[in-house]
Amino acid sequence: MQERCNILGVKISTVNLQQAIATLDSWITMHQSNYVCVTPVHSVMDCYHQPELKPIFNNSGMTTPDGMPIVWLLRAYGYKHVDRVYGPDLMRAVCQQSIEKGYRHFLYGGASGVPEKLTGILRKTYPGLNIVGTCSPPFRTLTLEEDNALVMQINATRPDIVWVGLGSPKQERWMAAHVGQIQGATLIGVGAAFDFLSGAKKQAPRWIQRSGFEWVFRLLSEPRRLGRRYLVNNPLFVLLITAQLLGVKSGEINRF
User: Fold this and answer.
1) Separation between Cα atoms, residue 166 and residue 189, nearest integer Å
2) Staple partner for 40: which of 50, 66, 112, 228, CB 3.0–4.6 Å?
3) Residue 66 near residue 40, CB atoms below 8 Å
4) pLDDT at 252 over 50
5) Residues near 134 by beta carbon (within 8 Å), at least 6 away in sequence
6) Phi-psi category of residue 202: left, alpha or beta, with phi > 0 → left and psi -120 to 50 → alpha
7) Following DSSP, what letter does each residue of 173-203 receive, concatenated?
8) Sign of CA dihedral 14, 207, 169, 163
9) H or E element at residue 93
10) CA atoms of 193 and 180, how far apart (whole Å)
């Protein structure tokens, strides 16, 4: 178990990409059911606005630092080894490792046709990659019967990893509700990775990703959908983190 650091009540795992991959490998080797929350600033702020989300992130097997502001904060707290564990990078690295390890992958999420297109791209990029199934669920909430059928469908493919691309916090809620139901599988919520890796959406250049301003790139790409996420939540995050660093008690932070 990795040490965790409290960022506004969300316990972030103090890991880098290599450590995250090693942890996933240990779970798969032991056939442990677990889930991973890949966590940028906006997910921390979702937990601030919706406190019922905090236990979902805090009870995960890993809640990784996604986004350079989270990484910088963890380093400021003394975790110098921490680096960004970004959904698309994690997916690429695990797929590369899977060629030797033989992991079985299931892709759950994305708009109609996206997981199938992503499957083709990943198989071409990583020859021998074993993707055993895909599902693009409807946007609405599934009925109990539909959900049970989905669990049976996924279990029938015996996946080691289920990549979940439903967007946050929907994917985190889904993983917390289904961990253990998907037998012996690790569930990994990777947000927009399905869209980025399939080419459905343009990904920011690497230098922008590392600069801490990827949010600006994404805002300019999707201003209507992401305007509130970044223009409201980012300044509030800075205010709340400043309060935390100054030692303001959590109860007082929650009144901002």
Assistant:
1) 8
2) 66
3) yes
4) no
5) 106, 107, 108, 115, 116, 119
6) beta
7) HHHHHHBTTBTT-EEEE-TTHHHHHHTSSPP
8) negative
9) helix 87-101
10) 24
Q: Give the pair of three-digit tokens for residue 62.
A: 């890993």
Separation of alpha carbons 164 and 161, rounded Å:
9
Query: Which tokens go with 248?
Result: 């303001």
Distance CA 256, CA 248 (A): 11
Mean pLDDT for 115-136 is 96
Average pLDDT over residues 236-246: 87
Q: How many Cβ atoms are within 10 Å of 226's Cβ, its own excluded?
A: 15
Give the start-to-end residue ranges of the domains of the chain. 4-192
204 pLDDT higher than 70: no
CATH 3.90.350 fits 4-192, yes or no: no
Residue 134 token pair: 């895909």
Helix (H) or strand (E) run with residue 98 in it: helix 87-101
Between 58-62, 98-102, 167-171, 211-215, the lowest mean confidence (pLDDT) is in: 211-215
Tell me the C-alpha distance between 231 and 53, whole Å.
22
C-alpha–C-alpha distance, residues 98 and 256, integer Å = 45
pLDDT digit string, tens, across residues 54-79: 999 999 999 999 989 999 999 999 99
Task: Find tokens 């990795």 and name the residue.
Answer: 2
Mean pLDDT of 136-160: 94
% of the chain beyond a pLDDT of 90: 70
Question: What is the pLDDT, as a whole number, of residue 217?
Answer: 64
Q: What pLDDT, in 10s, does the model give residues 142-152?
A: 999 999 999 99
